[in-house]
Amino acid sequence: MERLVFIVSQERRELFESLRQLLANEKSVDVVLDRRVVRRRRREEPPAADRRRFARRARPREDVELHARGWTVVRLP
């Protein structure tokens, strides 16, 4: 069964609480606050080499939605 995860920005806590209450009885829906934090290390020059093969957690569309609207939805298998 497919799961839906609503991710809500830290700045929209009132929306998080509302969605959490509204969707509390939905078994295949989760509502979570965005737990990511801004990177602390900031360099002006890029790193020498990126050793990762791919960004497994990168979701550019969802990142844009989260920043613009304050929330996004992710479908999980």
Structural commentary:
The protein is of the alpha+beta class. It has one domain. The chain contains 2 helices and 3 strands, in the order βαβαβ. It has helices at 13-22, 60-69; strands at 3-8, 29-33, 71-76.
Question: Helices, strands, pairings?
Answer:
Layout: E1 3-8, H1 13-22, E2 29-33, H2 60-69, E3 71-76
Parallel strand pairs: 1-2
Antiparallel strand pairs: 1-3
Radius of gyration based on Cα positions: 16 Å
Biggest β-sheet strands, sense, barrel = 3 strands, mixed
* Helix count from the secondary structure assignment: 2
What best-fitting shape do the alpha-carbon axes yield?
elongated
- What is the rounded distance between the termini? 7 Å
Total strand segments: 3
Average pLDDT over all residues:
84
Q: Give the structural class.
A: alpha+beta
Number of domains: 1
Helix content: 25-40%
**String of helices and strands:** EHEHE
Which ranges are low-confidence, i.e. pLDDT below 50, for 5 or more consecutive residues?
Answer: none
Please indicate the percent range of residues in DSSP E strands (runs of 2 or more): 15-25%
Order of strands, main sheet, comes to 2-1-3
